[in-house]
Specification:
Blueprint: H1 2-6, H2 15-23, E1 28-31, H3 38-48, E2 52-56, H4 60-72, E3 77-80, H5 86-97, E4 103-106, H6 108-111, H7 114-120, E5 125-130, H8 145-148, H9 153-156, E6 162-166, H10 171-180, E7 187-190, E8 198-204, H11 208-216, E9 224-227, H12 231-243, E10 247-251, H13 257-269, E11 273-277, E12 292-295, H14 302-309, E13 319-325, H15 327-339, H16 344-362, H17 368-374, H18 387-390, E14 395-397, H19 399-411, H20 418-426, H21 431-435, H22 452-464, E15 468-471, E16 477-480, H23 484-488, E17 495-497, H24 518-538, H25 542-545, H26 548-557, H27 562-566, H28 573-589
Parallel strand pairs: 1-6, 1-7, 2-4, 2-5, 3-4, 5-6, 8-13, 9-11, 9-12, 10-11, 12-13
Antiparallel strand pairs: 14-17, 15-16
Helix pairs in contact: 2-3, 15-16, 19-20, 20-22, 24-28
The chain binds adenosine-5'-diphosphate and zinc ion (ZN).
Adenosine-5'-diphosphate binds next to helix 3.
Length: 591
């Protein structure tokens, strides 16, 4: 089934065990990272068992994409949701009643309607899959009240195995999902959270645009997302990227629905569009061939970071998660939490999450280990695929520098922000310094060993490590903390990270066209052109025809017969019949 229909050679992670549980009629909870291959876990049982697979999914766009992809495989699949016309819905219902469907996707709000339940009562269901199952949990970040009603599925359709699937899985959320969906002694299948093909890169922000450009120069002709905090900034960065020769489109909640849909459509149907977006973009995008996710501003928490970066490289090919951050981000995010109208307890919670992320930004050894540990995956070695593993950052004894800085903060009365304190340290007699008499302080000019950028890096790390706070009520004044004293007295010492001036830039990714050798280039371009043409003809995104990895393999193996083409991963029977000849022609043409 796997090879025949889907064209894959082996199961991944826990796929096989999840499928076995469903085939045995058992409930299950499947936790896999984004891109882990959750869909296959319910699609294969739905195809193998008698009856219809019912898939509950919260995102209409995603439903359409999955149904399209299944139809490409000659599988009878459809969805029922409010975006369909009445006639189209009747047509789907007709096929459902006539037993001419193997999979049906519905939104949760639909499922709770009485007439839907009446319709569904007599359908022989093979499996019920609840996608994005964390939406049932109030612990999660995407709680949806409609999901709570899904616990009725157990009594409405007794005897039908149910499978809850999610990529979010703190232990509390897992327990909550099982309880709220009333799963019956489920098989719990948890794949590791690691996304080994994603390379984590974090740089301190010096000149964000120049840094971004250097990073993107390694991703010319590739698709990806660049996240920014503000709507305005997404527009400015997208416009600027256009002037640098990229196809870049903004996306944020302030745009009209048409513009957003148009930009999303281009992102999915073209091959190398960069979306510059606020976090409004991403949910419900299952384009598997994003080669990078870039953060120009810090996300709110490690969860958000992991979810956003997880959108890169779902096809398993190398991808980059790149981020720049600086003192300004630290100050701004702290401020956003402090000024939010939420209650104190919630703010404390948010502050805690932000601190975990900031601490992670400053780590000097493997970045992947603490990320995985955050999700309960302990005990792996250094990953070899993050900036710190690849180029271990230098650290230095920052005790004395920190003492100078804390003294300058203290002597100037804990009333000034970073810029002023740095002016005092480096001995810059600005008007403000003179007006406040700070050129007369003993600390004036004692910090000549570092430049302003160096001092800002020290301040940033002192804030993150809890030796300084930024007082929002006093215009961002730096203030000492209860820990500062021990450092000032020399009772503790402090190691600081040396910010690299010219940090690591990724080597070309194997999937990128730029590393295809000269002699293969022509064939590679021809295969991609063929895919793009077929995609337009069939009105599907290019990756629904074949993934990059499949084209890559065609290029290497150069199959010359239908049988040989079937041996390529990603080519199954249906796609062979549909597109085989066209790709064989291209390969033969290349001689
Ligand atoms: P998820 O829903 O877990 O984020 P998907 O089900 O969309 O992930 O799968 C991610 C990608 O991996 C898809 O493009 C899919 O075709 C591919 N895939 C899934 N299972 C396999 C497998 N066993 N071998 C190769 N590719 C697979
Ligand atoms: Zn690492």
């Amino acid at each position: 089934m796997l090879a025949d229909v889907f064209g894959y050679t082996a199961f991944r992670g826990e796929q096989e065990r999840a499928i076995d549980a469903a085939l045995a009629g058992r409930d299950s909870l499947v936790v896999m990272p984004t891109g882990g291959g959750k869909s296959l876990c319910f699609q294969i049982p739905a195809l193998l068992r008698d009856g219809v697979g019912l898939i509950v999914s919260p995102l209409i766009a995603l439903m359409h994409d999955q149904v399209r992809a299944l139809q490409e495989l000659n599988i009878e699949a459809a969805c029922l949701n409010s975006s369909l016309s009445h006639a189209a819905q009747q047509e789907v219902i007709g096929r459902l009643r006539a037993g001419r469907l193997k999979l049906l996707y519905v939104a949760p709000e639909r499922l709770v309607q009485a007439h839907t339940q009446a319709l569904f009562r007599d359908i022989p269901w093979s499996i019920i899959a609840i996608d994005e199952a964390h939406c049932v949990s109030q612990w999660g970040h995407d709680f949806r009240p409609d999901y709570l009603a899904l616990n009725e599925l157990a009594s409405l359709f007794p005897g039908v195995p149910r499978m809850a699937l999610t990529a979010t899985a703190t232990p509390a959320t897992r327990v909550d999902i099982v309880a709220r969906l009333a799963l019956n002694e489920p098989a719990v299948l948890i794949s590791g959270f690691d996304r080994p093909n994603i390379r984590y890169l974090v740089q301190s922000k010096t000149d964000a645009r120049r840094q971004l450009l250097r990073f993107l120069n390694n991703h010319r002709d590739e698709a990806g997302i660049a996240y920014c905090l503000s709507r305005n900034k997404t527009e400015r960065i997208a416009a600027w990227l256009e002037t640098q020769g990229f196809t870049a489109l903004p996306y944020h909640a302030g745009m009209s629905a048409e513009d957003r849909a148009a930009h999303q459509h281009r992102f999915v149907t073209e091959e190398s569009v960069i979306i510059v977006a606020t976090i409004a973009f991403g949910m419900g995008i299952d384009k598997p061939d994003l080669r990078f996710v870039a953060h120009l501003d810090l996300p709110k928490s490690i969860e958000s970071y992991y979810q956003e970066t997880g959108r890169a490289g779902r096809d398993g090919e190398p991808a980059d998660a790149w981020m720049v951050y600086g003192l300004q981000d630290v100050v701004r995010l702290r401020q956003m939490v402090d000024e939010s109208p939420a209650d104190e307890e919630y703010k404390r919670h948010e502050r805690h999450k932000l601190d975990a992320l900031l601490g992670w930004c400053e780590v000097t050894d493997c970045r992947r280990r603490p990320l995985l540990a955050y999700f309960g995956d302990e005990g792996s070695g250094p990953c070899g695929n993050c900036d710190n593993c690849l180029e271990p950052p230098a650290t230095w004894d920052g005790t004395e520098a920190a003492q100078k800085l804390l003294s300058a903060v203290y002597r100037s009365g804990q009333r000034f922000g970073a810029t002023h304190v740095v002016d005092v340290l480096v001995g810059d007699a600005t008007e403000k310094v003179v007006r406040n008499g700070h050129d007369q302080l003993s600390v004036f000019g004692i910090g000549g060993e570092l430049d302003a950028r160096g001092w800002r890096s020290v301040i940033r790390q002192l804030i993150v490590q809890g030796y300084l706070i930024v007082d929002q009520h006093r215009y961002g004044a730096l203030v000492l903390t209860e820990h500062s004293r021990a450092l000032l007295r020399g009772e503790v010492s402090l190691r600081l990270r040396e910010d690299k001036k010219d940090p690591l830039v990724r080597k070309k990714t194997p999937a990128s066209k730029s590393i295809v050798s000269e002699q293969d280039r022509e064939l590679w371009d021809a295969l991609r052109a063929c895919r793009l043409r077929l995609a337009a003809e069939h009105n599907v995104p290019p990756y629904v025809i074949f993934h990059d990895a499949t084209l890559m393999q065609m290029m290497e193996v150069r199959p010359d017969s239908p049988g040989a083409l079937l041996g390529i991963s990603g080519v199954g029977q249906a796609k062979l019949e549909r597109y085989g000849e066209q790709f064989l022609d291209v390969i033969r043409g290349a001689g």
